[in-house]
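for the writeup, i need someone to sanity check this before i put it in the appendix. the sequnce is what the collaborator sent (i think, or maybe the updated version? ugh). structure was predicted straight from it, no edits. if anything looks off just tell me and ill rerun, i have time this weekend
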Amino acid sequence: MERFAVPEVLAEEMCDRLGVAVPTSMAGVGDLYRAWSAAVPFDCLNKALARREGTLPPGGDPVAFCETWLATSLGGTCWGHVSAMGAVLQAGGINCRVGLDHLLDTDEVDFHAFLVVEDGDRRWMVDVIHGSGEPLLLEAGSVGVHPAYPARIDADEGRLLHRYTTMYDGRADVRRYAIVSTDVDAAGLRTFCEVSRHFGMTARSIYSRRFTATEMIDGRPNEDGSALVVRHLGADGPSTEEYRDPDEAFAALGYGPEAAAMAERAGLIEHSGSGIVRFVPRVPK
């Protein structure tokens, strides 16, 4: 199988920026997972730009993902996260593969990737997109510990389901994904990057999410696009702030100054003739 790989110096640079050592044990995997979840966002900007330019959505090149984050603080969709984090883990001698699941209970076609870390005869789910606080043992009954984002693995007629819950507008949104593979390698992941041209995260409006130890921080436009809403969701419920200035909005999400310019190039931010800024609203599915 084709393993994920980045130069050792790049893996060390990623870990230095995140404040952890290159992992060589499961304890180190947990350290990297927590630091990565807090600092490297799940977002759509690079995919939106690829869609606009008619190029392949990024994700299959872990070197490009790491270099982009180091330079701009931009993250990416699940494909980029698993290839890059998998490559950093491999640099420390931690073998990992990619797990694949698909969304149930909807007509939406959505395949999602997570890392599967090999630990002797045990396997761990490491998913920075649906944060569980700690790696989840990949077996039925495993429950995440993140206070704002309940995640678990259930058994269902011979298969495993990955389930998580989030809150929007006071409503619990429960999503279930059926795990269909835990053995995707780097070559297989590049194939799903091709599939992601047309399916999965639509990337038609700004979305960003990351997990600290105590809260989920996300951002998306309000209904008319007049502001970007940044939400902090912790155990005690959400708090929100609205930003009309793109630079201030992206700074609140933890991005560098390049983010607003990239969002504009990707068509996610528009300027009227009078100088009014509009964040392209989310398109209902």
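The longest strand covers residues 171-184. The radius of gyration is 18 Å.
thx in advance!!
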